[in-house]
Amino acid sequence: MKDTATGLTKGAQLIPNGMLDDNAPRNMWWCAAHVDEITDKPLARWLLENPVVLYRLSDGTPVALDDRCPHRWAPLSEGKVIDDQIVCPYHGMEFGADGICTKVPTQTSVPNSARVQSYPLRTSGAFVWIWMGDPEAIDHDPVDMGFTTDPGWSVITGYMEVQANWVLIRENVLDLTHIAFLHANTFQQDDWENAPEVHMEGDTIVYEQDFPPSPLSPLFCAAFGFEDKHIVKREQRGWMPSLAVSFSDWNIHDISAELGKRRDFIGRGAHIVTPGERGKTHYFFVASFDSPNAPVALLEKTKAGVISAFQEDKDLLEKIQAQVSRDPRGLDFPEINLGADGAGVAVRRVLKRKLEAERRA
Ligand code: FES
Ligand SMILES: [Fe+2]
Q: What is the mean pLDDT of the chain?
């Protein structure tokens, strides 16, 4: 049975998260790609269950079009960009950045209906963002990702395709009590067994938690210039300003810093999710440190550690998605909420409100 307001499958979830459905709101900015992925060579990417082709014009402007030629449906991404027109690989029809056909090689006239959907794009920090809903409804900018291109920060970015609905990752990265268990061997931040305080600031979910002095996760010691198991005081603060992006700040205080030496550091993670094909998600991640010019080898080592931890989430979330998809009971299965699920439940509330607003529109 479907919830009439949200269109999501109803089951035993108190607030359905729609993990088996198309549960992506359209009227918001989702991340289409890392800036470096978009070049003058067409990039094919499924976004919100649509095939999209991404490329750049000669002046650097990024373009996103429906990746399906309106003639005989060839993927335009198999073609080439010539003089800022994308040329279909099948019969050579050409399209401009607005998606309007500019040339049909076999005839002089261009049919009025020869056009593909063009999607608004904007760049924020190291990422390009796409609006796949009603362009008239654009009422805000993409989330500010300026720190990812700020020379004062050392920044790692990465990407994984996860065979699970995006909402599972979104809930996972705001669910912190799993760190002491699922990531016992990677993060080794085993003091994280109590739930953080969660509150809303407008539509932004915020969590905060202070930790007494304890050994810092070995994933981050090197990046901060500490020996392994260095004892620090931590203030963890995370926020989700959009269903597409959440941040997690590790505010680190080196309580044994010598006089005159730096004591306060920030490690900032960003978790960016974009729905792809049904049941698949593009997961772009950022790990960054508020010190410039960290050595490349150090960042590579940190990146490998972060990936090994995220791989643990990916493996488990993919198993959850596969099992729920195969189980005829689907979402119709008891699901309990614990006190520690405050932020995850808040994600579902934000999602429900957004979907209801779009269905009313
Ligand atoms: S399919 Fe694109 S020109 Fe024919
Ligand atoms: Fe995790």
A: 96
